[in-house]
User: What shape does this take?
Amino acid sequence: MGDPRNSLINEGKPGEIMAMANQSVVAEVLSPKDSKVWIVHLDPGTDLSAS
Assistant: This one.
């Protein structure tokens, strides 16, 4: 199990992931059947020790 402080809501912003250093967070979303392409932007944040 991950750290219970990990969250998909950070400072009231839904979808923003908050996790302690060197921890992982997983989110699953149902994909519509007609989806062909997902465009994802991953931002490692400012924690350079974990990036």
